[in-house]
Amino acid sequence: MSVTFAQGFRAAGVEAGISAKEGKKDLALVVNDGPIKAGAGVFTVNRFCAAPVQWTRNAIKQGRVDAVILNSGGANSCTGTKGYAQSQAEAELVANLVHTEPQYVAVCSTGMIGELLPLANVLDGAREAYAQLDSTEQAGVDASHAIMTTDTVPKTCTRQGTGYRIGGMVKGAGMIAPQLATMLCVITTDAQVSAGQCQAALAYAVDQSFNRIDVDGCMSTNDTVLLLASGASECEPDPDEFNQLVAEICADLAAQIVGDGEGSSHTIRITVNRASSEEAALACGRAVAASNLLKCAISGNDPNWGRIVSSLGTVPEDVAPYDPQKVSVAVNGVCICDGAKPAHDRSEVNMENREVQIDITLNSGEALATVWTDDLTHEYVHINADYES
Amino acid sequence: MSVTFAQGFRAAGVEAGISAKEGKKDLALVVNDGPIKAGAGVFTVNRFCAAPVQWTRNAIKQGRVDAVILNSGGANSCTGTKGYAQSQAEAELVANLVHTEPQYVAVCSTGMIGELLPLANVLDGAREAYAQLDSTEQAGVDASHAIMTTDTVPKTCTRQGTGYRIGGMVKGAGMIAPQLATMLCVITTDAQVSAGQCQAALAYAVDQSFNRIDVDGCMSTNDTVLLLASGASECEPDPDEFNQLVAEICADLAAQIVGDGEGSSHTIRITVNRASSEEAALACGRAVAASNLLKCAISGNDPNWGRIVSSLGTVPEDVAPYDPQKVSVAVNGVCICDGAKPAHDRSEVNMENREVQIDITLNSGEALATVWTDDLTHEYVHINADYES
Fold this sequence. Notes:
By secondary structure, the first copy, chain A, is α+β, with helices and mostly antiparallel strands. Chain A folds into two domains: about 1-260, L-amino peptidase D-ALA esterase/amidase (4-Layer Sandwich); about 265-385, ArgJ beta chain, C-terminal domain (Ubiquitin-like (UB roll)). Chain A has ten helices and 16 strands. In chain A, the strands form three sheets. Chain A has a seven-stranded mixed beta sheet, sandwiched between helices. A five-stranded mixed beta sheet of chain A has the order 3-10-8-7-6, sandwiched between helices. Chains A and B meet through helix 8, helix 9, strand 14 and helix 10 of A and helix 8, helix 9, strand 14 and helix 10 of B.
């Protein structure tokens, strides 16, 4: 259902000839028909952010988003003033089509860095997408297909609130790191909420979800997460419920990204328990999630806890105070390291399922945090050694 | 020639039955016959440091090292008080053999984390190595073979000073990160220098070499670099020359580690030029060196500069102030990104040679730094997915 689950939105996904992949939909359009057109966004913090990010980050300051144009097949990143002009041209065309101002149009791109878009194709595609705009389930599905790159499946999610709906789509499978990911995400709701409510809900949700996943430790130049509200349900939501549902949507979509991590054969869920603070738990979880050696071991079905504690040991003491001699590690429920010493033999751990649950207990407090990553496989190297080359 | 190049040292490498690999030498002994027996060391900063590191870091405080016992086939890391007792037992036996005190014996181990050593084999091996101690070239070669793990070649280096000699051996191929690496290194000299001189020379040399290489971003629990001086040449070296030669030895051995990085097909040399400070240049170089996406692209012979600038863009502005719009990137001498925009087409870059030189110019100052890493290949995943499992 994706972005058309909520009332007041139309979408389309078309083949515009931007992507090198034959027959692939590569341009999506999402239009907010209102009555209200509140919008909020969270973006990559990469200093080399792409032209569409520069454009949209500025546009979103108005708190209003009437439409979003997204393309795969090219990131329009590190393309200088010409690239920025392309993003602007996209916004101007879409504004013209939907009878609004360019500053109310968000632009998202994903693909190869350092190449301009085939602008004529993009603009022709935008016109075609506009002609095909629909509020059907299929229209939402088409849009979610059009933003895929190395994704093997489209990623969408919906939640039914009390009197209103929320739905979303995301793309992303590689170049995924904490502090966002190479991902484009559009979430729509027909709840009657302000841009400020959207921004607050989104900031919290992203912090708890997309910022806690790590496929390969690489931060993108194009990450964009947008939340658009139409108010079409005429329902003013309970703020707590609304925030919770936006958080659930983001968590669900983030899990889908990790579940589709490039070449991955295992999803690794790392929970750091009994830490002195959530920040300490997060820092430890991220250090472990970033270990290539652990990720390789897991792809070989080996719960090698030496790879876990050696990563944990790189977190500075002022960031995460704990006594190494009190640290325990369990994998899939089997305690294989107790007090920094071997416990159960790691051959007792069942590694058959895709999901691997690593529980690290620091015994230095009461806080906890969970991060997600993938294993590192031959297929990941293959995908990224041969990417566009 | 390794550790027997300098006068006053004997060495041996024997097959003690510690390693699972049939017929592999796995225990080395290096003995300093004096007349002086100065020693200095640099160790991993991992909070889960191994028992031999705990032992040796404490022993080295005396400034005297009479002998070093090293083994592959087991790291004796995260093995609790039993593991520490094993390191102590090794030192006691060697002290007994060479007629000194245990606190003057350094202990180094490398291999799997979380398993005790087969102590009887280690002690029998130490006795055999003692019986075979020799100052010949072959004895040094044998020792360098005995410390290899996933290394495909032994790694040694020598330098002739004015009236004295320096030689060394190192092991390491994976789990190599800035701030040391999974590496054991023993350097010997017959120069007449104090423990303080050794420590100063070694600290500088390690900072400029082993701390600037990164095979896989993973920090070990066992890293140890030792410098032993016998004074047998009776030559008091010029301090600058001595420091310089120790630095050259470390740089040479560090380059050998990267040249033998697990599964690697390219060595990547990253120089960050015109930075505001050396620290800024180093931070940028390390961020780029840590990118799995870049490392995969290079293994596919693709100088994908988008992977370079997107990594560069993750370095916080307060760490490395620069204007992204003024950044340029050259690979193997071809400028492919100028002012954050495409320059020469990357197809013009010749990627045939093993070494790939990446030059990043920040245009924000006059400082520079170089770091080294390897590409990420199918073979790396294979080695680490199937490691000891």
